[in-house]
Design brief:
The complex is a heterodimer of chains A (291) and B (443).
Chain A: H1 2-29, H2 36-44, H3 58-68, H4 80-91, E1 101-105, H5 126-132, H6 148-152, E2 158-160, E3 167-169, H7 179-183, E4 189-193, E5 200-203, H8 211-217, H9 227-231, E6 237-240, E7 243-246, H10 257-260, E8 266-269, H11 275-281
Antiparallel strand pairs in A: 1-4, 2-3, 5-8, 6-7
Helix pairs in contact in A: 2-3, 2-4
Chain B: E1 23-24, E2 30-34, E3 44-45, E4 52-53, E5 58-61, E6 70-71, E7 76-85, E8 91-99, H1 122-131, H2 144-148, E9 158-162, H3 172-179, H4 181-195, E10 199-205, H5 209-219, E11 225-230, H6 239-247, E12 262-266, H7 267-279, E13 285-291, E14 299-304, H8 309-315, E15 323-328, E16 335-336, E17 350-355, H9 356-359, H10 372-376, H11 383-391, H12 395-400, H13 411-415, H14 422-442
Parallel strand pairs in B: 1-14, 9-10, 9-12, 10-11, 13-17
Antiparallel strand pairs in B: 2-8, 3-5, 4-7, 5-6, 7-8, 13-14, 15-16, 15-17
Helix pairs in contact in B: 1-4, 3-5, 4-7, 11-14
Classes of the chains: A alpha+beta (291), B alpha/beta (443).
Chain lengths: 291, 443
C-alpha cells in the first residue's frame, strides 16, 4: 500500500520536474518581447472597448499609441483630455488638448412637428424601415424613432422620448464614441463640439428636399431659405442641397441665426433665455428641444 | 401532378376577381410616369417640359445594357419632369403628363386582328423588344431583351412560361390567359424563335382549370407549346421553383436559369412581346387586379402605366371605410403603399385592399425553435438563422449562409407561429449583403 503511494509521488514529481525544465526552455525560445508600456497605457484607458477611437478596442489603441509614439492622431473620446494626459505622461509626450465632442440629433420631427401619416408595423429596426419606406411622417430624411442608436450606445446615453418619439442624448453620459453616428441609417446624428457650458447651436434638420415638400411633412424642417447664411457674421453657415449647415469650428455662438430662422429649424441648447423672447415663448409652442 | 419539392406553403387563395372580365380603364386626367421602371440603371429623360407627346412616344431612354426604355402611355402635354412620391414614400424622377385626347403614334397597329405570321428574325425581335421597353411583367421587371441574349457557351433548351400566379388574390395573369390566349401563344412562338428553342411549357396551377383547358385547346394549333398543370403551392411562380416543377432541374446557387438551359418568362411578358413585335406597340399598359374582401367591385383592369392608384380604386367601387392597408402586389410579396397617388408602374400586378382587422400584424413573440420556417423555405435556407444574423448586423456570415439566394417569398414569415418579422430582416440582410458584395466587386 505504502509502496504504491511512494511510487506515484516519485513518478509524478519526476514528470513534473522534466516538464518544467522543457517548458522553461520553450518559453525562453518563443518569448514574445512586448513593450511593458502597452500594459500601462492599457490600464489608463477606460476599458469600454467601444471602438470610438477607431481601433478594435482599448488594447489595440494602446499598442498603436506605444508603437507610433505619437498622440496627435489618436484620441480616446471616452476618457477625454484627462486620459490622454495620463497616456502622454507614460509615453513622455506633450499632451494635446482636444475639445470635447458630443453627439447631437439633427432632427426635430417629433410627433407634433411631423405628424404620422402612415403606420409602420415592420421589424423594429431603423435600418430596415429606412430601406422599406420613407417612414411614418413621410420625411425621407427624418428620424424613424425605432432606436437603432439606442441599441448601439454602450454608455446608456440615448433613450427614446415617449412623447416626441425622438431619441434624447444625455449630456452627462455621452462620450462621443460615434457608435450612434454609424448606426443611424439616415446620418441624422452628428458629433459636434460640446461647447462652453454645453452651449451649442446647430441646424436640427437634415432634409435635402426643396422648401415646399420639406415643410409639408414637418413644421420645423430647414427649407433652405438662406436667411441664416446672410445673418451669420462669421461665415460659419453654408447652404447645400436646400439645407443649411453650421460649421462648429467657425461658429462663435453669437445666437444671431436662431431668431431669423422662419421654421425654427435652428436649435440653441443650454443658453439663458433671451429677454425679448422669454415673454413670447409662453404664447408660441417652439420646437421640441432635447432633454 | 407536378410541383416543386422543397418547402412551400398554401395560403388561402381568395381569387375574388377570377371571373371578372378585363375592363379597359377610362383614360385618367393626368399620369406620372416614373423614369426608372425596370431593374438596372435608371433611364434618361428625352422629352422636355411643355412638349406634346403622342401615345407610344419614347420619353426616357435606357442607356446601359440592363435598363429599359419608357414610352408615353397617353397623348398630351408634358407638364414637368420632377420627383414623384412612389409607393415607398421616397421620391423618384417622373414625367408628368396632362392627358389631351388619345392620339397614337402612326407606327402602332391598333386593329384588333390577330397577326399570327412571324416575319421578324432573331436580331430584329431582340432589338425591337429592347426598343419598345418590354420588361418582365411578373413583378421583378427585368428587361426582357437581356433574357433573350443567351451568353456564349450556354444553350437554351426550354422556354418556360409562367402562368402560375401563385400569389393569393391576384388574377391578372389568369384573365390574360383566358382572354388573350391566342395573342399570348404567338408571343411565346416569337420568344421561342428568338431563343432558338423548340419546346415551350406553360406552367399553370390547377386552381385555374378553365385557363388550362382553354390554352390546351389553343395549343393544338401551335407546335411545341405544352400546358403543364401544376399542384397549387406557393411560391411556384418563383423562377427556380417553376423550373424544378416543370422540367425537374435545379438552378445552382447564385446562378441564372440559363445555367440549366431554361429561360422563364411571364404570360404577361409573352403578350407584351406579341404586341411589340406584331403590332409595334410599346409596353404602355398592363392588366392590374384591384381586389380585397372589402372591395365593392373586385376587378381586372387594363391600365395605362402612370395612372395613379387612387383612380383604380375609384373604378373598383372606392376605398372601403375600414381599410387598413393598400398593398401593391399580392399579400405575400407585395408592399404596402404610403400614398394612394403613387402611379401604376410596369411591375404593378395588383392592388390589394386589406380591411383594418385583417391587416394587423400578429404580436411578435420569442422564437420557439420549431423550425417551421426552415421546412417552409423553398430555397432550402434557414430563415431563422439568417434573420438573427442580419438583426445582429453579421452580414458576412449571412452571405456564407446564402442569404442572397432568398427569393423574398415570405413563406417563412407566413408560417412563423411566433409572428416574427423574418422577411423584414431577410430583406434588410439581402440589401446590406448586396451592398457589401458590390463594394467588394468595385475594389
Amino acid at each position: 500500500m505504502n509502496e504504491t503511494i511512494v511510487f506515484a509521488v516519485i513518478s509524478l514529481s519526476a514528470i513534473g520536474g522534466t516538464s518544467a525544465v522543457i517548458l522553461y526552455f520553450v518559453a525562453q525560445k518563443f518569448k514574445v518581447i512586448e513593450d511593458p508600456r502597452i500594459d500601462i497605457v492599457n490600464e489608463k484607458l477606460p476599458g469600454a472597448n467601444c471602438g470610438g477611437c477607431g481601433f478594435a478596442g482599448c488594447r489595440a489603441f494602446a499598442e498603436e499609441a506605444v508603437k507610433t509614439g505619437d498622440l496627435s492622431k489618436l484620441n480616446c473620446p471616452v476618457g477625454g483630455n484627462d486620459t490622454m494626459k495620463d497616456i502622454a505622461a507614460v509615453l513622455g509626450l506633450e499632451p494635446e488638448e482636444k475639445e470635447p465632442m458630443i453627439a447631437v440629433l439633427r432632427c426635430s420631427g417629433s410627433r407634433v412637428n411631423a405628424p404620422q401619416k402612415v403606420a409602420y408595423e415592420g421589424a423594429s429596426s431603423c435600418a430596415f424601415a429606412h430601406v422599406l419606406s420613407s417612414g411614418e411622417s413621410g420625411c425621407p430624411n427624418g428620424c424613424l424613432g425605432l432606436g437603432d442608436c439606442v441599441v448601439s450606445c454602450k454608455f446608456d446615453a440615448i433613450y427614446i422620448d415617449d412623447t416626441t418619439g425622438l431619441p434624447v442624448i444625455s449630456d452627462e453620459n455621452c462620450v462621443a464614441c460615434g457608435a450612434c453616428v454609424t448606426a443611424c441609417p439616415r446620418s441624422i446624428i452628428e458629433l459636434r463640439k460640446k461647447g462652453k457650458k454645453d452651449r451649442r447651436i446647430f441646424v436640427s434638420c437634415v432634409n435635402t428636399e426643396k422648401g415646399g415638400p420639406a415643410k409639408k411633412n414637418c413644421a420645423v424642417a430647414c427649407i433652405g431659405c438662406g436667411k441664416c447664411v446672410k445673418e451669420c457674421p462669421y461665415e460659419a453657415i453654408t447652404l447645400q442641397n436646400n439645407l443649411a449647415y453650421i460649421d462648429y469650428d467657425k461658429c462663435r455662438l453669437c445666437r444671431k441665426c436662431e431668431p431669423v430662422c422662419p421654421t425654427s429649424a435652428i436649435l440653441e441648447l443650454n443658453f439663458p433665455p433671451r429677454k425679448e423672447k422669454a415673454a413670447e415663448a409662453e404664447k408660441v409652442d417652439g420646437p421640441v428641444t432635447e432633454g | 401532378m407536378k410541383t416543386f419539392t422543397l418547402g412551400g406553403v398554401h395560403p388561402e387563395e381568395n381569387k375574388l376577381s377570377a371571373d371578372k372580365i378585363i375592363e379597359v380603364l377610362p383614360l385618367p386626367e393626368k399620369v406620372y410616369v416614373p423614369v426608372s421602371q425596370s431593374l438596372g440603371a435608371p433611364s434618361k429623360v428625352v422629352v422636355e417640359k411643355g412638349a406634346m407627346v403622342k401615345t407610344g412616344q419614347l420619353i426616357a431612354k435606357g442607356e446601359s445594357f440592363i435598363s429599359a426604355n419608357v414610352h408615353s402611355p397617353v397623348s398630351g402635354k408634358v407638364v414637368k419632369v420632377d420627383d414623384v412620391i412612389d409607393s415607398s414614400g421616397y421620391k423618384r424622377q417622373a414625367v408628368f403628363i396632362d392627358v389631351i385626347g388619345d392620339e397614337w403614334e402612326e407606327s402602332i397597329d391598333r386593329s384588333p386582328e390577330i397577326v399570327s405570321e412571324i416575319t421578324a428574325d432573331r436580331d430584329t425581335i431582340i432589338k425591337k423588344i429592347n426598343a419598345l421597353g418590354v420588361v418582365g411583367l411578373g413583378g421583378a421587371t427585368f428587361p426582357s431583351h437581356v433574357k433573350l441574349m443567351v451568353p456564349d457557351g450556354k444553350k437554351a433548351e426550354y422556354l418556360l412560361i409562367n402562368g402560375v400566379e401563385c400569389e393569393p388574390y391576384l388574377t391578372a395573369d389568369h384573365r390574360l390567359m383566358l382572354e388573350k390566349g391566342e395573342e399570348m401563344l404567338i408571343g411565346i412562338s416569337i420568344l421561342k424563335k428568338a431563343l432558338g428553342v423548340s419546346k415551350a411549357f406553360i406552367g399553370i396551377e390547377s386552381n385555374k382549370p378553365d385557363a388550362i383547358e382553354h390554352l390546351k385547346r389553343l395549343c393544338a394549333n401551335h407546335q411545341g407549346i405544352d400546358v403543364i398543370p401544376l399542384k397549387v403551392k406557393y411560391p411556384q411562380g418563383g423562377e427556380k421553383q417553376l423550373i424544378k416543377a416543370v422540367v425537374n432541374r435545379e438552378v445552382p446557387s447564385g446562378k441564372l436559369p440559363i445555367e440549366v438551359g431554361c429561360v422563364v418568362n411571364n404570360v404577361g411578358t409573352a403578350l407584351a412581346v406579341y404586341e411589340a413585335i406584331q403590332k409595334n406597340k410599346p409596353l404602355i399598359e398592363r392588366i392590374v387586379t384591384v381586389t380585397g374582401k372589402s372591395v365593392a367591385k373586385p376587378s381586372n383592369f387594363m391600365v395605362r402605366i402612370g395612372t395613379p392608384v387612387s383612380t383604380l380604386i375609384e373604378a373598383a367601387g372606392g376605398l372601403p371605410e375600414n381599410t387598413g392597408k393598400v398593398i401593391s402586389g399580392g399579400p405575400m410579396m407585395g408592399k404596402a403603399l404610403t400614398s394612394l397617388e403613387a402611379p401604376v408602374v410596369k411591375g404593378t400586378s395588383g392592388i390589394l385592399i386589406m380591411p383594418a382587422e385583417e391587416s394587423k400584424r400578429t404580436q411578435v413573440l420569442n422564437c420557439i425553435r420549431c423550425g417551421r420556417c426552415i421546412t417552409a423555405c423553398p430555397m432550402g435556407l434557414e430563415p431563422v438563422l439568417l434573420a438573427q444574423l442580419s438583426e445582429n448586423l453579421l452580414f458576412e456570415r449571412a452571405e456564407a449562409e446564402r442569404i442572397m439566394d432568398c427569393i423574398e417569398c415570405g413563406s417563412c414569415h407566413y408560417t412563423c407561429p411566433a409572428g416574427r418579422p423574418l422577411l423584414d430582416y431577410l430583406r434588410l440582410g439581402k440589401n446590406k449583403t448586396g451592398l457589401l458584395i458590390r463594394n467588394r466587386v468595385k475594389k
